[in-house]
From TrEMBL:
The keyword Signal applies. It comes from Salix suchowensis. Coiled coil: none annotated. Keywords: Signal. This is GDSL esterase/lipase. Residues 1-23 form the signal peptide. Belongs to the 'GDSL' lipolytic enzyme family. The lineage of its organism: Eukaryota, Viridiplantae, Streptophyta, Embryophyta, Tracheophyta. InterPro entries: GDSL (IPR001087), GDSL_lipolytic_enzyme (IPR050592), SGNH_hydro_sf (IPR036514). The keyword NADP does not apply. It comes from the Eukaryota.
Length: 121
């Protein structure tokens, strides 16, 4: 698999965000309707907790600065870049993993993370 250049990712993200159409929305809604995340451990929000793999982050010290101070499967002690981006864009506070067992329809519609740690292996 060839390495993807950073500018390609930026172009893809821009195309997704700026192609929101002319749908009429109340002013309280964000201009961006959803966020979809693809990647590796740098943006994995917990998908690896639900699959059979050696790469997991469901133990301490992961999650010590996250809401509830519990490990969530994020390879971070707190929120990830997609979480901050979703907050800045006023979509949601954090991006849940797609494989989360009790994922609501609203969470799916407003965006999820398909990222999985160890994806390059």
């Amino acid at each position: 698999m060839a390495n993807i250049k950073p500018w390609v990712v930026l172009v893809c993200i821009s195309a997704i965000f700026f192609n929101t159409g002319n749908a009429t929305r109340p002013r309280s809604f964000s201009r961006f309707p959803a966020i979809l995340v693809f990647g590796d451990s740098t943006v994995d929000s917990g998908n690896n907790n639900e699959i059979d793999t050696l790469f997991k982050a469901n133990f301490r010290p992961y999650g010590i600065d996250y809401h509830g101070h519990t490990p969530t499967g994020r390879f971070s002690d707190g929120r990830l870049i997609p979480d901050f981006l979703a907050s800045i864009l006023k979509i949601k506070h954090s991006v849940p993993p797609f494989l989360k067992p009790n994922l609501s329809d609203h969470e799916i519609v407003t965006g999820v993370s398909f990222a999985s740690s160890g994806i390059r292996i």
